[in-house]
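Is flavin-adenine dinucleotide placement plausible here? Inputs below.
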Amino acid sequence: MSHSAVSQAAAVSVSIGNERSLTRYVFKHNNSISFNTKPWSSSLALTQKTSTIRDAKRYSNTTICMSVQQASSSKVNVSPIELEDPTDPPLNLYKPKDSYTAKIVSVERVVGPKAPGETCHIVIDHDGNLPYWEGQSYGVIPPGENPKKPGAPHNVRLYSIASTRYGDFFDGKTASLCVRRAVYYDPETGKEDPSKNGVCSNFLCDSKPGDKIQITGPSGKVMLLPENDPNATHIMIATGTGVAPYRGYLRRLFMENVPNYKFGGLAWLFLGVANTDSLLYDDEFSKYLKDHPDNFRFDKALSREEKNKKGGKMYVQDKIEEYSDEIFKLLDNGAHIYFCGLKGMMPGIQDTLKRVAEERGESWDAKLSQLRKNKQWHVEVY
Ligand code: FAD
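Reply from A.M.:
I modeled the complex. Tokens:
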């Protein structure tokens, strides 16, 4: 697809049948309509069904409204506006002993056939009762008994929310999660042992539209998007599902028409995954690159497909090293830097940043403590 074809593209949304989970964003170009560039995700979405007629009606209305808005403006209007109340983020509205019963809207596999493992995008209907801000997490209590405490429910598992406060349908009634299915392979035989697979991630990835789900939260303040300066720089570093909070940020910055927050700064995303098939939300991010080239940068590290300059696997820290001069200058000028994903990502990144700082004649420890003091340093790893 040529650049000009894309810039002429109109974003519209269509309803296939009458049901919300069948609604897809499509981009129209050169007289052809494509759902997105990954055929597997749209075909899987088409197998999903919403649970009630009430939902179907609600979302078919949303769809019509969205189509009109998108035709007349490049950003989507959002409601209800009360969600912009600037006081404090909502925190722990529901606790493990008093959780909220929400409903699954859709579960969509969002990686291709050559991705190692499975990752799903899961939309949850909270009907406006579990509001949250971008960068927060929900807790999920999987059904069943806690094997370590017979008779008691499972412990809560946390998941970063991957949508904005308005949700994927822009009405403030849903939240989306990006969940990687935890599968256990016996180290000796190399075979999967289903009895040791992750409880909650498998429950989530196997759930069906209409299923009930116990939610706690929202929780977390460390990954909230600071909005006091609309021209700030945000450097976002993720491995795998660590991209979840950034999907929320980027929809807020580039997709939604938020009344009091018009972003004019720079958002720079570094995403590390195994291969092209493992890329998450790539269609959304590629569209921001085309529509907002002065405000968005996107660098990918594909560890199983690309080599770093030393001939080893390309990890996200190698990309950081490649742009370290720019990153250090941006940090010196007040940029925020965020890290989200597996715990294992941090040592390699910290080593790289320390080495670069030393090459520049700076003390990394002093710089890090300054970044922390200035609230520029945001880490959520698990
Ligand atoms: P568990 O049942 O808790 O098992 C944990 C691991 O142990 C699994 O890999 C399982 O295979 C293995 N295991 C189980 N039994 C055995 C055994 N007998 N011997 C050896 N190994 C065993 N995850 C996401 O996918 N997306 C997110 O956006 C996300 N955000 C998070 C945000 C925060 C703030 C935190 C703290 C965590 C986040 N997580 C996220 C991780 C998530 O909370 C869970 O830890 C993850 O999904 C695994 O939970 P589970 O119930 O599936 O696995």
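Short version: The CA atoms of residues 272 and 301 lie 5 Å apart.
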